[in-house]
């Protein structure tokens, strides 16, 4: 019995070894390097100079604007995606026929076939002076500014990340046992009570999965604030690009990157705790 268990453990370890080695080389080691850089100093010519100091972390308030913009616009953008995505996912899972469901899902996924850069450039034209503002000026509404504003950034976020919010919620709703809805109705619950007490509650794992996924990606977002914010709406990703590629302050940039990773881990931990508390131990996977 012990020999069989040892053999199974050896087979499991052999199968996991390639992926574990991959993660160690391309995830753990780079993060360790960033932590080491964050404890160093900026060299006179730029880059990294060996040292052991927490001065870079003490200097984090110098980039407070980027942090505040990210901490405000990232959750607001994720919540906006949720508000738009839930009705869409609900219709796909609960109302759409099987024939049309696959077509609608394909239409949701198709935007991923095009580069986010190209899609964001399209929004730059739509929100720019030759787009919606030009149409508004034809009806007498002048001096409307849409581009280079937080609203433009939020719109780009919702457009770019909406499919990532829809799919986990759809999977959660699609797996929901419809007999629970019938039982709730038979027991005299109103449609609203059934939705809140059964549908919404049992789909919370999908909600938290989608919200966490979008939120974490937004914490490091760079492209959308750069193009639709016009350099006036800075995210942490913009600060990292500036520190590593322009001012070449690698230790300070590494300290910000480590802080960003810690915030992402905190988001995952909070989302997992909330999901387990409100909806039990149900898990939602995309596969």
TrEMBL record:
<dbReference type="InterPro" id="IPR000515">
    <property type="entry name" value="MetI-like"/>
</dbReference>
<keyword id="KW-0472">Membrane</keyword>
<keyword id="KW-1133">Transmembrane helix</keyword>
<feature type="transmembrane region" description="Helical">
    <location>
        <begin position="153"/>
        <end position="173"/>
    </location>
</feature>
<keyword id="KW-0813">Transport</keyword>
<feature type="transmembrane region" description="Helical">
    <location>
        <begin position="100"/>
        <end position="116"/>
    </location>
</feature>
<dbReference type="Pfam" id="PF00528">
    <property type="entry name" value="BPD_transp_1"/>
</dbReference>
<dbReference type="InterPro" id="IPR035906">
    <property type="entry name" value="MetI-like_sf"/>
</dbReference>
<feature type="domain" description="ABC transmembrane type-1">
    <location>
        <begin position="67"/>
        <end position="271"/>
    </location>
</feature>
<keyword id="KW-1003">Cell membrane</keyword>
<feature type="transmembrane region" description="Helical">
    <location>
        <begin position="193"/>
        <end position="219"/>
    </location>
</feature>
<comment type="similarity">
    <text>Belongs to the binding-protein-dependent transport system permease family. CysTW subfamily.</text>
</comment>
<protein>
    <submittedName>
        <fullName>ABC transporter permease</fullName>
    </submittedName>
</protein>
<dbReference type="GO" id="GO:0005886">
    <property type="term" value="C:plasma membrane"/>
</dbReference>
<keyword id="KW-0812">Transmembrane</keyword>
<feature type="transmembrane region" description="Helical">
    <location>
        <begin position="72"/>
        <end position="93"/>
    </location>
</feature>
<dbReference type="GO" id="GO:0055085">
    <property type="term" value="P:transmembrane transport"/>
</dbReference>
<feature type="transmembrane region" description="Helical">
    <location>
        <begin position="251"/>
        <end position="272"/>
    </location>
</feature>
<feature type="transmembrane region" description="Helical">
    <location>
        <begin position="20"/>
        <end position="39"/>
    </location>
</feature>
